[in-house]
Predict the 3D structure of the following.
Amino acid sequence: GPAGSVFRTSADELPRTSGDVTLMIRPENIRVDSEPIKDASAETSRLQGDVSKLADSGPFVQLTIHCGPDFTLLASMGKWEYNQRRLLCGDRVHLAIDPRDIHVLED
């Protein structure tokens, strides 16, 4: 992730080595909002980024979010939720990811 970012994960997802790892997060498990997400637990990983692409996929909208150099996330939300937020390309957004939704793969 971006330099200085901390991703919290559940203990059973911790890698067995100190080498590089890859984080896998299902797009629908990334909470996205235009305001800081206040109702998430203290263990929740939080990021900010800019919406760089929107794709309408029928009942879902996929958002490509640029969070820093060489770090882009794909998030998805239901059409109703998206329409409530009215996010556009270029908008600054806040992201929240529950530790149970982060899966760690050793490189």
In short: The two ends are 15 Å apart (CA to CA).
